[in-house]
Design a protein that fits this description.
Pathway: Cofactor biosynthesis; pyrroloquinoline quinone biosynthesis. This protein is of the alpha+beta class. It contains 25 helices and 22 strands. Helix 10 packs antiparallel against helix 13.
Length: 781
């Protein structure tokens, strides 16, 4: 069923957007404040970003322990904020029962922050830690360098994030500026509130009006117009194997942001006849198109191309310009129709948070309006000013996408294949089907073959994503795993194509060079490596010979597979049963992963200027309930102690995790100052203080049990929980069983879980970008 939208302006000036989306289970709110870094006093770089941080530190009515962040975490939701050049966004998503309380806390923190100087000093150090990480991050510095190419008079060329030196907390003038900025912009007339959820429009309106009563009345303030974006034409920049094309446009009409999104959709379309296909044929690794800035008719568009050979830089630039010229002249009516279908698919697959954030940013999943079509013409004219390099490429529009129009053939019923487990946990009425396929491999050639298959799947992965379906293919130790999720009918079609590709990858995928990816944040790199390190990396020697189709057939011949599907109604399930008759390999159960109960430390790349450490503490599969409750108790205090009080860094977290069928508690810290040994000592000290302070209060148990209700969980989380239970050998366990176990936990059981955790009863696994202490009792690797 399609969603319905209502726009309101309340008496206090607040603009409200309500979206009733019956397919949703959870609710989300997003507030956009029409002010950002460029609206703050230039004397205090980072003031707007600093205020965003301060608002999460609690109010008189809702102290930090009961503020928005802790409240959302307690209810299994997600919350965040973002400061941009001319806007600041605050957003959260929770189950329906917690929505009213979240809205109340959100609006209270926006309206009534506490400007306590001690809090400010502590949070300034967090801002400074972010600044240090930013200054050491190659990707962030590359983007900052791009922005230095705009006019020096434009605020976009300046430093806006803030640090210890740009935020003089003790200064009376700074405090006056901080509070004046809040008073001027954090009022109802300067805000847009969007709500999305399965509730009726009437219910959403009542929630919005109640929340709005906390906000001061006001009117929209005209933001200062920026100076000219660039002083001279921006030339392409070729560095190593990367080509950066930067386009600055001025005086663009309303609808330009939507026009850029439409243009990017076709710039990155990999189908035959388009730009991406032509570039890949010549050795392109990746193409990214993103707007770096947009305000008051100005826009800065960045096209980034990663090339296998820097020598084709001029050719790549000529292809881009040639395609843009073709796109300006071609009849785009067919693309407008397909784009409308793509937007429908995206809206159907979107979460409540996606929908709320896009509504507050005036970017709903909708067909391109007439206004945006005119803006597209103006945008293309601006992008094509000046001389165009010569190019003789023959362009054409892509063929219609079959994934947007899946039809069923009426076949006789067919039983599910032997290796497929059908989980009833996700009801068919959710219109979200998920299928998992996992192969256990024995051939030593599987690692390089996975790269071949992953490259071969990339075009299908891109097409599926455009149709609202997620397709993932991962390698972990001696396992390959395929996951496909989305509208059930489309999932069937994508799974069928994926199985064909996996058995007969295209010729180009055997010879293409693997794309090189930047490492990114050290803590994120460690998170990506955690599953393989947990189950034990495959240490089989790589073959020296060139691999081919016969090697792949040999891998499939000896592979053993198991699968799970959930969320499919009778018709789509019958189709999936038929599709899965063609799974390569033989069906067979996989034994659950057994983690050795030792303290193991793995020193892994990347070596970096900041220390990153992950601690994973496995627990028995039967201890899921008590460990989830323990994680619920730990999350807030751990963050408070290590990030706020000790100020180790801005990347600090703890959470319950299920990885390859193994349950456990995960702690993560990235610090610019503390050593790995010091980080671990702080975690150990925190855990040591836990057992005597823990209580299994009825309120906390009830809140956690409600989180584990299918109606309160996202569809993806329900499916993942069912899959992890199957990998652990507990496929018959239900969410209701887990809820009963959670409600039955007592103080003694909870404290015993903490004791077991502290003493590494089932082992500790540490991943760090540095070595273990020499005097530690660690198995290193």
């Amino acid at each position: 069923m399609p969603s319905t939208v209502q726009h309101l302006i309340l008496d206090n000036g607040l603009q409200v957007i309500l979206r009733h989306a019956p397919q949703l289970k959870r609710c989300a709110a997003a507030v956009r404040v029409m002010a950002g870094s460029h609206d703050a006093p230039r004397a205090y770089a980072g003031l707007a970003h600093f205020l965003e941080h301060l608002l999460f530190l609690g109010t008189e009515r809702f102290p930090q322990g009961d503020g928005l962040m802790r409240y959302v975490q307690r209810h299994g939701g997600q919350v965040n904020a973002s400061t941009r050049e001319r806007t600041t966004d605050y957003f959260f998503e929770v189950p329906q029962a917690a929505f009213s309380g979240g809205l109340e806390r959100l609006c209270d923190m926006l309206a009534r922050p506490v400007f306590d100087q001690q809090r400010q000093l502590r949070e300034r150090e967090v801002i400074h830690a972010e600044f240090i990480a930013w200054s050491r991050n190659p990707q962030a510095q590359a983007q900052f360098a791009l922005l230095q190419r705009v006019s020096g008079q434009h605020p976009l060329s300046g430093f806006q994030a803030g640090n210890r030196y740009s935020l003089p907390v003790h200064s009376r003038d700074f405090q006056t500026a901080l509070q004046a900025y809040h008073q001027r912009y954090y009022q109802a007339g300067q805000m847009i509130l969007s709500l999305s959820g399965p509730q009726s429009l009437e219910q959403l309106e009542a929630l919005a009006r109640a929340a709005a009563s906390h906000l001061a009345s006001g009117v929209r303030i005209g933001q200062t117009q920026p100076p000219t974006l660039v002083d001279e034409r921006l030339e392409p920049q070729l560095s190593a194997q990367q080509l950066d094309l930067l386009y600055a446009v001025e005086q663009q009409p309303t609808g330009t942001e939507q026009a850029i999104e439409f243009l990017s959709t076709w710039l990155t379309d990999a189908r035959a006849g388009g730009l991406l296909a032509a570039l890949r044929h010549r050795g392109l690794q990746a193409l990214e198109c993103s707007p770096l800035y947009g305000f008051a008719g100005q826009a800065l568009l960045h096209i980034r191309l990663k090339l296998n050979d820097a020598a084709i830089g001029d050719q790549a630039q000529a292809l881009v310009q040639s395609w843009l010229r073709f796109f300006r002249e071609v009849d785009r009516s067919v693309l407008y129709q397909e784009y409308a279908s793509l937007q429908q698919c995206r809206a159907q697959a979107a979460t409540a948070l996606d929908l709320a954030c896009r509504d507050s940013a005036a970017r709903p999943y909708e067909a391109l309006s007439e206004q945006a079509r005119h803006a597209l013409d103006s945008l293309l004219d601006s992008l094509l000013q000046g001389d165009s390099p010569t190019c003789t490429e023959s362009w054409h529009l892509p063929a219609p996408e079959p994934l947007l129009n899946v039809h069923y053939a009426d076949h006789p019923a067919i039983p599910a294949p032997t290796g497929l487990c059908l989980s009833p946990l996700l009801p068919p009425e959710r219109r979200h089907g998920v299928v998992y396929l996992r192969w256990q491999l024995t051939a030593a050639t599987h690692a390089p073959l996975w790269l071949v298959l992953d490259r071969a799947l990339q075009p299908l992965r891109e097409r599926a994503a455009r149709a609202g379906v997620t397709l993932q293919f991962e390698a972990c130790g001696t396992f390959w795993q395929l996951r496909c999720a989305g509208v059930p009918e489309t999932v069937d079609a994508v799974t069928q194509e994926a199985l064909e590709v996996l058995q007969h990858p295209g010729a180009a995928s055997w010879t293409a060079k693997p794309a090189s990816e930047a490492d990114g944040m050290p803590i994120r790199v460690l998170l990506r490596q955690l599953p393989e390190q947990l189950i034990g990396p495959d240490e089989a020697p790589l073959p020296a010979c060139t691999l081919g189709q016969s090697d792949l057939q040999a891998v499939w011949q000896h592979a053993r597979w198991q699968a799970m599907a959930t969320g499919f109604g009778e018709g789509p399930q019958q189709t999936l049963n038929r599709v899965l008759q063609n799974v390569p390999g033989q069906p067979g159960a996989h034994h659950p992963i057994v983690v050795e109960p030792v303290r193991r430390w793995h020193c892994l790349p990347p070596l970096a200027s900041e220390q990153a450490l992950l601690l994973f503490c496995p627990v028995a599969i039967t201890e899921e309930a008590s460990t989830r409750l323990l994680a619920q108790h730990i999350q807030g205090p751990f963050y408070q102690r290590l990030r706020v009080e000790l100020q180790l860094g801005y990347a600090v977290f703890s959470a319950f995790r299920q990885i390859q069928g193994v349950n456990g508690l995960l702690f993560g810290v990235q610090s610019p100052s503390a050593s790995h040994v010091q980080i671990l000592a702080h975690i150990d000290d925190f855990l040591t203080s836990l057992p005597t302070t823990l209580t299994a209060s009825p309120d906390v148990r009830q809140a956690l049990a409600e989180q584990m209700n299918e109606a309160a969980m996202s569809n993806a989380d329900v499916a993942e929980w069912a899959w992890q239970a199957q990998l652990a050998g507990r496929s018959q366990t239900t969410l209701n069983d887990l809820q009963i176990e959670i409600l039955a936990i007592d103080d003694a059981q909870l404290r015993q879980s903490a004791e077991d955790l502290l003493h590494a009863k089932r082992g500790w696994l540490i991943l760090a970008n540095g070595p273990a202490a020499e005097d530690g009792d660690w198995v290193t690797g």
